[in-house]
Automatic annotation (TrEMBL), chain A:
Keywords: ATP-binding, Cell membrane, Membrane, Nucleotide-binding, Repeat, Translocase, Transport. The keyword Electron transport does not apply. InterPro entries: AAA+_ATPase, ABC_carbohydrate_import_ATPase, ABC_transporter-like_ATP-bd, ABC_transporter-like_CS, P-loop_NTPase. PANTHER family: CARBOHYDRATE TRANSPORT ATP-BINDING PROTEIN MG119-RELATED, GALACTOFURANOSE TRANSPORTER ATP-BINDING PROTEIN YTFR. Transmembrane segments: none annotated. This is Sugar ABC transporter ATP-binding protein. It is a peripheral membrane protein.
Automatic annotation (TrEMBL), chain B:
The keyword Cell membrane applies. This is Sugar ABC transporter permease YjfF. InterPro entries: ABC_transp_permease (IPR001851). Signal peptide: none annotated. Keywords: Cell membrane, Membrane, Transmembrane, Transmembrane helix. It is a multi-pass membrane protein. NCBIfam families: PRK11618.1. The chain crosses the membrane at residues 20-38, 103-127, 133-154, 175-195, 225-245, 278-298, 305-325. The keyword Transmembrane helix applies. One of its GO terms (molecular function) is transmembrane transporter activity. Its main location: membrane. GO terms for cellular component: plasma membrane. It is found in: Cell membrane.
Length: 514, 330
C-alpha cells in the first residue's frame, strides 16, 4: 500500500477555538481503497479534523492536498463537488423533505432545468434497495426512525460519486443488524476503491473493518498504525495516554446480594401500565438499590417505557405505585417531585441548552427541584460542578464554556451530570454511554454501580448487552413494544440468553408474517 | 445473512392525504363553506363576477403574499412589504407626475423593491441578524421614503396607467383586470419555482433545518438573500398593481399590509417556522380574507372591523390546526 499515493493528505493542521486548541499540528493521510479509523477520546478533535477538511471551519495552520493538489474548501458544497462526502456526527438532514429529496437535494436529476421528480424517486428507491432499505421514499424523512434517517444520510453520501467518504460515528444510533449492514456496504465501497474515514467508539467495529488507525489525543497526533499491528489494548492505551490498568476492568458489579435488595417494598411498581400505540401493558418493579437493565432492539419500546415512568408520556392503562402508594405520574414535574430523574438519549433536542455554560446546564435540574426562589449558593454550585466534571472527566474542564462548544461525547456527560446531581431515588438512563469513549464509559458504569450501592434505583437502557449484563440485577427484554422477558442476572445469564430472548420474538414475528 | 428490512411499509393508500397537505385542504374546505354561506344568504353572491372581484380587489395582496410565502418557508419574516408597496406606488406616481416615460417608470419601480430586499437579505445573512429586526428597519426606512417623496397623495393621470387600470378583459358576461392576470402569472411562476427548481427546493431545506442544509452543501446564504430579493420584487409588483387600483400614490397607504399578508400565508397552511407550505395555499388564504370582506360588505350592517375579528379567530384556528397535525405526526 505504501507505494501508492495517498488520495488525501493533511499536514500540520491546527485549529484554535477561543480558549481551546482543538487541533495542534495534526497529520493525516488516506489511501484509496482503505477504511481508515480515526480514534480518540471525547474531545480529542476527531470531528473538528473532519470539519476542517470539509471546509465547515477554516484552518489556523496547515495544508490539505487532494490527489496531489493543494485544496482549501470554502464549505461542504465545494468539498462534495471535489469528491469528499461526509456524514456528520449528528444526523444532518431535513426532516420536512421527502426521503428521496434528502438523498438528492443539491444534485437533483433535472430535465430542461426542472427537477425531475419521477426520476428522483426511482433512483432513490434503487439506491436504498442496494442497502436493503425498503421504505416509501415520498414520505417525509422525519416520519422514520433515527436509524432509518442515519441510513438515508449514508445513502446520500455514498451516491455522490465520492472518492473520499467520511463517516463520523455513523453507528451510534444503529442496532446490531443495521451495523452489520453498514459494514457490509463499507466493504463494498472500499473494494470499489473509495477511501473511507471511519470515526467510532466501538472497538470491535474498528477491528472488524479498518485497515489502518490514526489516533488523536487532546488535539495532537499520537500516531498512525496498521490495524493488524496494533493490539486492542495498545490502542486504548494510546487513546487515553495511560496504562490500561489505570482503567482496571470493571468486573460484574451486579454480584451483590439481590435477595437483600428486593426483600422490602419496591420503590416503584408498575402494574399493567401501558399506553395505546406506544407500549403494551407491562408489570415491573424496581427496588431501591436495584439496577434494572432494559434490553431490546432500537425501537422496541425501551425509551417509551422510560417515558411512562417519567411522566413524559401519560399512561392510559394500568397503575403505578411509588413506595406502595398508588400515584399517577402525570408529567415530568410530578416525576421529579417524587425523585425520578430521566436522562434522555436525545441530548440535542431534549436535553441541553447550547447557549448556557457547562455549569448552568449541570445546575439546571437541581435548581428546578428546589424551586426558583431558593437559588443554589454559588459556592455549592462550584463545588458540585467541579466534582462531576472530574468524576465524568468532562473536557475541557471549564465550567464556563458554553455547552454548544463541547464535543458530542462531552455534551452527553454534561447531561448525565445534570441528573446525577439531583440525587434522585430512581434514575432512568437512556443510552447514557452512546458516543462516549471507553475511558469515560467505564467511569460512568462505575458511577452507576456506586450510586446503586448507595441505595439509588436505576433503570438502565442500553443497546450494548455486555454493559447491561455487567451492571444490572435484573434484565428486562423488550420486543415490538412489549415486555417479553424478565431475567434475573444470576450466574446462568449471559449475552447469549438475552440475545435469544430478543431474537426469538423476532423470529416468531417472521413466522407470523409468512 | 438474512437481514430484516429496517422498516417495511406498504404503499400509501390512495385515500390517505399526505400530512403536509392537510392544512391546505382545510383552507380549501373553509373557503368553499364560506362561499356556500354567501351564496345561500345573498342572491347576488352566486354571480360569477363576485369571484372575479375577489381577484380584482386582492390581486396586489396576492402578489405580495406570494413573496412572503418564500420568506416564511425559509423560517424568516419580511415586515417591510407594506412600506415597500407604498414606496413603489409613491415613486411611480411622483415620476409619472414629473413626466417621465411610463416604461422607464415601470422599470425603476420594479428595481427599487428587489434592491432593498437584496440589501436586507445581505444584512440578515452576513451579519447573522434576526430577519424580524432587519425588515422592521426596512419597513421604517421605506415608509420614511414615502413621506420624504411627498407628504400628500399624488394622483396619477398618465395614459398608460389609466388604461391599464381601466382595461376590462372580458370573459363571457364578466370581466377581470390586467392586475388579475399579472397576479395569477406571479402565482404560477412562484409555484413552479418552489416545486421544480433548485432554488425552490433549497428554500424548503433551509426551512426544515438550516444547519443541515449547510452541511448538505446547499447554498444557504445565497438562497436566503434570494428569498428577500424575491419578496422585494413581489412587493414592487404589488405596489404597481396597487397604483393601478387606486390611480394614485399615497404615503400612508398599505399600512399594516405586512400583517395581512402574514395572516394570508398562515391561513394558507404555511408553517411560520418554515419548511412546509405551498403557494397554492397562500392563494386560498388570500381568497379566504377576500371572502370574509365580501360577506361583510354584502351584509351591509356589520362594521368592517368584523373582518379583523374574523381573521383573528381564523388565525388562531389555523395555528392550532397546524399544531395538531404536528403532534399527530409525532
Ligand atoms: N465550535 C466550537 N467552539 C469552541 N470549541 C469547540 C467547538 N467545536 C469543538 N470545540 C472543542 O474542540 C475540541 C474537539 O472537539 P471535537 O468535537 O473535535 O471532539 P471529538 O473528538 O469529535 O469528540 P467526540 O468523540 O466526543 O465526538 C473539544 O475540546 C471541543 O470542546
Ligand atoms: Mg465528534
Amino acid at each position: 500500500m505504501s507505494q501508492r499515493h495517498p488520495v488525501l493528505t493533511m499536514t500540520a493542521i491546527s485549529k484554535i477555538f477561543p480558549g481551546v486548541r482543538a487541533l495542534d499540528g495534526v497529520d493525516f493521510r488516506l489511501f484509496p481503497g482503505e477504511v481508515h479509523a480515526l480514534m480518540g477520546e471525547n474531545g480529542a478533535g476527531k470531528s473538528t479534523l473532519i470539519k476542517v477538511l470539509t471546509g465547515v471551519y477554516g484552518t489556523d495552520a496547515g495544508t490539505i492536498t487532494l490527489d496531489g493538489q493543494q485544496v482549501s474548501f470554502a464549505g461542504p458544497m465545494q468539498a462534495t463537488a471535489a469528491g469528499v462526502s461526509t456524514v456528520y456526527q449528528e444526523v444532518n438532514l431535513c426532516p420536512n423533505l421527502s426521503v428521496a429529496e434528502n438523498i438528492f437535494i443539491g444534485r437533483e436529476p433535472r430535465r430542461l432545468g426542472a427537477v425531475n421528480w419521477r426520476e428522483m424517486r426511482r433512483r432513490a428507491q434503487e439506491l436504498l434497495a442496494r442497502i436493503d432499505l425498503h421504505i416509501d421514499v415520498t414520505e417525509p424523512l422525519g416520519s422514520y426512525s433515527l436509524a432509518v434517517q442515519q441510513m438515508v444520510a449514508i445513502a446520500r453520501a455514498v451516491d455522490v460519486n465520492a472518492r473520499v467518504l467520511i463517516l463520523d460515528e455513523p453507528t451510534s444510533s444503529l442496532d446490531a443488524d443495521e451495523v452489520a449492514q453498514l459494514l457490509r456496504i463499507m466493504r463494498q465501497l472500499r473494494d470499489d476503491g473509495i477511501a473511507i474515514v471511519f470515526v467510532t467508539h466501538f472497538l470491535d467495529q474498528v477491528y472488524g473493518i479498518a485497515d489502518r488507525i490514526t489516533v488523536l489525543r487532546n488535539g495532537r497526533l499520537v500516531g498512525e498504525y496498521p490495524t493488524a499491528e496494533l493490539p486492542q489494548i495498545a490502542l486504548v492505551e494510546k487513546m487515553i495516554g495511560k496504562e490500561l490498568d489505570a482503567l482496571e476492568r470493571l468486573d460484574s458489579e451486579a454480584g451483590r446480594d439481590r435477595a437483600a435488595i428486593t426483600a422490602g417494598q419496591p420503590l416503584v411498581a408498575a402494574d399493567g401500565l401501558g399506553r395505546t400505540g406506544s407500549v403494551a401493558p407491562f408489570s415491573l418493579t424496581i427496588h431501591a438499590g436495584e439496577v434494572v437493565g432494559l434490553a431490546g432492539l432500537l425501537g422496541s419500546g425501551r425509551t417509551e417505557v422510560a417515558r411512562l415512568f417519567f411522566g413524559a408520556d401519560r399512561a392510559d392503562q394500568g397503575r403505578l405505585a411509588v413506595d406502595g402508594e398508588p400515584t399517577a405520574i402525570r408529567n415530568p414535574v410530578a416525576a421529579i417531585g417524587r425523585g425520578v430523574a430521566f436522562c434522555s438519549e436525545n441530548r440535542r433536542t431534549e436535553g441541553l441548552v447550547g447557549e448556557l455554560s457547562v455549569r448552568e446546564n449541570i445546575i439546571l435540574a437541581m435548581q428546578a427541584t428546589r424551586g426558583w426562589l431558593r437559588p443554589v449558593p454559588r459556592r455549592k454550585q462550584d463545588e458540585l460542578v467541579e466534582r462531576y466534571i472530574k468524576a465524568l472527566s468532562i473536557r475541557p474542564a471549564d465550567p464556563d464554556m458554553p455547552v454548544r462548544n463541547l464535543s458530542g461525547g462531552n455534551q452527553q456527560k454534561v447531561l448525565l451530570a445534570r441528573w446525577l446531581i439531583t440525587e434522585p431515588r430512581l434514575l432512568i438512563l437512556d443510552e447514557p454511554t452512546r458516543g462516549i469513549d471507553i475511558g469515560a464509559k467505564t467511569e460512568i458504569q462505575r458511577l452507576v454501580a456506586q450510586l446503586s450501592d448507595g441505595g439509588m434505583a436505576v433503570l438502565f437502557i442500553s443497546a450494548e448487552l455486555e454493559e447491561v449484563l455487567r451492571l444490572s440485577h435484573k434484565v428486562v427484554v423488550m420486543r415490538d413494544r412489549q415486555l417479553v422477558a424478565q431475567l434475573d442476572n444470576d450466574d446462568t445469564l449471559d449475552a447469549d440468553r438475552v440475545m435469544r430472548a430478543i431474537a426469538s420474538g423476532a423470529r416468531q414475528e417472521e413466522l407470523e408474517k409468512a | 445473512m438474512t437481514t430484516t428490512p429496517l422498516a417495511a411499509r406498504g404503499p400509501r393508500a390512495w385515500w390517505r392525504v399526505p400530512q403536509r397537505q392537510v392544512p391546505v385542504l382545510a383552507t380549501l374546505a373553509l373557503l368553499l363553506v364560506m362561499y356556500g354561506i354567501g351564496v345561500s344568504q345573498y342572491r347576488a353572491f352566486s354571480n360569477i363576477q363576485v369571484v372575479f372581484n375577489l381577484f380584482i380587489d386582492n390581486g396586489f395582496l396576492l402578489v405580495v403574499a406570494v413573496g412572503m410565502t418564500f420568506v416564511i418557508l425559509t423560517g424568516g419574516i419580511d415586515l417591510s412589504v407594506g412600506s415597500v408597496v407604498a414606496m413603489t406606488a409613491m415613486v411611480s406616481a411622483s415620476l409619472l407626475n414629473d413626466g417621465v416615460h411610463p416604461a422607464l417608470v415601470l422599470l425603476i419601480a420594479l428595481l427599487i423593491g428587489p434592491t432593498l430586499g437584496f440589501a436586507m437579505g445581505c444584512v440578515i445573512h452576513f451579519f447573522d441578524i434576526q430577519p424580524f429586526i432587519v425588515t422592521l428597519a426596512g419597513m421604517f426606512f421605506a415608509r420614511g421614503m414615502c413621506t420624504w417623496i411627498n407628504t400628500a397623495s399624488i394622483p396619477i393621470t398618465d395614459g398608460f396607467w389609466t388604461s391599464a387600470a381601466q382595461e376590462r378583459i372580458r370573459i363571457g358576461e364578466n370581466f377581470v383586470t390586467v392586475s388579475v392576470l399579472v397576479a395569477l402569472a406571479v402565482v404560477a411562476v412562484a409555484a413552479y419555482t418552489l416545486a421544480y427548481t433548485r432554488l425552490g427546493r433549497n428554500v424548503y431545506a433551509i426551512g426544515g433545518n438550516q444547519q443541515s442544509a449547510l452541511l448538505m452543501g446547499l447554498p444557504v446564504g445565497r438562497t436566503k438573500i434570494a428569498v428577500y430579493t424575491i419578496s422585494g420584487l413581489c412587493s414592487a409588483i404589488g405596489g404597481i398593481l396597487l397604483s393601478f387600483y387606486t390611480l394614485s400614490g399615497a404615503p400612508l397607504i398599505a399600512i399594516g399590509m405586512e400583517l395581512d399578508t402574514i395572516a394570508a400565508v398562515v391561513i394558507g397552511g404555511t408553517l411560520l417556522t418554515g419548511g412546509s407550505g405551498y403557494v397554492f395555499g397562500t392563494l386560498l388564504g388570500v381568497l379566504v380574507l377576500g371572502v370574509i370582506q365580501t360577506l361583510i360588505t354584502f351584509d351591509g350592517s356589520l362594521s368592517s372591523w368584523w373582518t379583523k375579528i374574523v381573521i383573528g379567530g381564523l388565525l388562531f384556528a389555523f395555528i392550532l390546526l397546524q399544531r395538531l397535525v404536528g403532534i399527530r405526526k409525532k
